Amino acid sequence: MVLRPATDSVEAVWAARALGSIVLPDVRIARPSRATDGRAIVGGWMAYRLAAGSGDEVAEERPSVEEIVLVSVKLHQALINVPRPDFIDKRTDVLARADRVAWGEEEVELDEANGGRWFEILAGAARETKLPNQVVHGSLFRSVRLAGDRVPTVFDFRPYYRPAEWATALVVVDAVVANAAGATLIQQWSHLPDWRQMLLRATMFRLAAHALDPESAGEETLDGLRRAAVLVGEV
Predict the structure, then answer these.
(1) Which of 18, 27, 110, 178 is the most exposed, having the fewest neighbouring CB atoms within 10 Å of its CB?
(2) Concatenated DSSP letters for 26-90?
(3) What value does the CA radius of gyration of the chain take, rounded to a whole number of Å?
(4) Which domains does the chain have, with CATH numbers?
(5) Amino acid 51: pLDDT
(6) In the prediction, which pLDDT does 201 show?
(7) At residue 88, does pLDDT exceed 90?
């Protein structure tokens, strides 16, 4: 069992229900476990049960970026038929707003010095896509760890309703921002449908989030976002 704080009770309860039957080859989802009285959250915490044989601990080590991208592809194939959560439309936090801004569903003036200028540059190249939307994990790069048996384990499911390729592009963009990847990884997955458009939307999402809440990350993150914007703009 692994204990983790439940930052959003509605999403936590949804995860406990929606992820219970998802089975993936070579990937483990840390499944929420209920208390003896049936509650998924107790005192602001959730308990996640790892599968038998996963080892006694979850390592702090992350898989390689390439492994996380593969986790994304496998995970989202398994999530195709999961219904759209109703609470997505009701979210008003910075990330939810940034998501809508990046997809042209909400208009807001972004601070040019904190990502807004690069957002506008990339927005000029953004086009509509016919890729289908589905439930996706919106923060996989930071949410995959290695279990004791070295099997990638997915935590902290933050659901969005976007193309699966967008979620995979977001892994790559987050890796570039963290200086864990560069142009080579971006080109490596160029065979995915509408890859450039998904990279644009993923980068715009992170830029919008930073511009809406610049205090959430430091200058190093902004430098990483600029680097990602340049590389994506050259694809």
Answers:
(1) 178
(2) T-EE-EEE--TTS-S-BTTEEEEEPPTTS-S-B-SPPPPHHHHHHHHHHHHHHTTTSPPPGGGGG
(3) 18
(4) 2-233 (3.90.1200)
(5) 56
(6) 98
(7) yes
